[in-house]
């Protein structure tokens, strides 16, 4: 997963220029043709979000906006590649017009797979997860 961190501009609701949209679309299309693009989305500013925490046995909701934009997520891209090195090569192709500001970076994180969870993730739980994902895909296809 490629994580795009928020900036003061994205937290104000600025979404990008026509050139940035065109560049990012071309990049995503290149990844799609290569068979590595899974999904990618931008996120609304934290002012439209909430933090939900569990404190003293109760759920507590704190409405946005949140401080420290360098630690907030503004968007993500999920790719399916065979190695960390291949993922980094795709990051190096990130559109320059959408590059992070000086002092900020795109963050690369590996998504956990079923085998990463060990014995606690039983075959029955894996089967339920696979069924849920299949059901979700069918629901999404129906629109």
List the secondary-structure elements in sequence, H or E: EHHEEEEHEH
Strand composition percent? 15-25%
In terms of quaternary structure, what is this? single chain
Structural class: alpha+beta
CATH fold-level assignment of the largest domain: Alpha-Beta Plaits
* Rounded radius of gyration (Å): 18 Å
Give the neighbour order of strands across the main sheet. Answer: 2-5-1-6
Q: Can you identify the CATH class of the largest domain?
A: Alpha Beta
CATH architecture of the largest domain: 2-Layer Sandwich
What does this structure look like?
The chain has 143 residues and is an alpha+beta fold. It folds into two domains: 2-111, Alpha-Beta Plaits (2-Layer Sandwich), CATH 3.30.70; 113-143, no CATH class. The longest helix has 20 residues, at 123-142. The model has no long low-confidence stretch (mean pLDDT 93). It has helices spanning 8-11, 18-34, 84-91, 123-142; strands spanning 2-5, 37-42, 50-55, 58-63, 73-79, 107-108. It is built from four helices and six strands; from the N terminus they run E-H-H-E-E-E-E-H-E-H.
